[in-house]
């Protein structure tokens, strides 16, 4: 399962959503029908050998809760302390498919912040993040601002120019 976690949030060769569905399905296996997770993001069950908890996704969890639990499981499983821009892009892609556009935008903004801070800046990745932000923005003016930022990074990209029309 760590290979699937890695392919969900640390690499971009696989479909983000397909990898997420594998992880969420795995985390659903320990759920009992009567479990009711009203507390929020995680439900932990004591592990008798190591003393750490297991993360369980229940049938009544919302999409936001499922992604948050799956992400937390991946952080534990992959021993990630600080996420990189790929992590946030892949989370954004997952939220966008669900469709949870507000959550997707938040993840893309985190990726953009990390990418802007790099030296040298990965212009191709930053362009794609701004393009995604423009695509999922709910405010048309804000969407146009993101697309203009993307266009500055790649002035000849036809997809971005077309989206700005």
TrEMBL record:
Domain of life from the UniProt record: Eukaryota
InterPro entries attached to this UniProt entry: TPR-like_helical_dom_sf, TTC23/TTC23L
Gene3D superfamilies per UniProt: Tetratricopeptide repeat domain
PANTHER family cross-referenced by the UniProt entry: FUNGAL STAND N-TERMINAL GOODBYE DOMAIN-CONTAINING PROTEIN, TETRATRICOPEPTIDE REPEAT PROTEIN 23
Protein name, as recorded: Tetratricopeptide repeat protein
Source organism: Aspergillus viridinutans
């Amino acid at each position: 399962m760590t290979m699937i976690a890695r392919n969900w949030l640390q690499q971009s060769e696989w479909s983000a959503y397909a990898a997420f569905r594998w992880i969420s399905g795995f985390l659903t296996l320990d759920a009992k029908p009567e479990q009711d997770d009203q507390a929020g993001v995680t439900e932990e069950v004591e592990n008798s050998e190591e003393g750490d908890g297991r993360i369980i996704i229940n049938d009544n969890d919302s999409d936001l809760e499922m992604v948050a639990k799956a992400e937390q499981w991946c952080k534990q499983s992959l021993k990630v302390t600080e996420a990189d821009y790929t992590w946030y892009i892949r989370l954004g892609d997952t939220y966008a498919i669900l469709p949870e556009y507000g959550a997707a935008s938040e993840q893309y903004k985190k990726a953009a912040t990390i990418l802007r801070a790099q030296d040298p800046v990965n212009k191709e990745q930053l362009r794609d993040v701004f393009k995604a932000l423009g695509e999922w923005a709910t405010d048309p003016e804000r969407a146009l601002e993101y697309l203009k930022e993307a266009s500055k990074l790649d002035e000849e990209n036809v997809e971005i120019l077309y989206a700005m029309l």
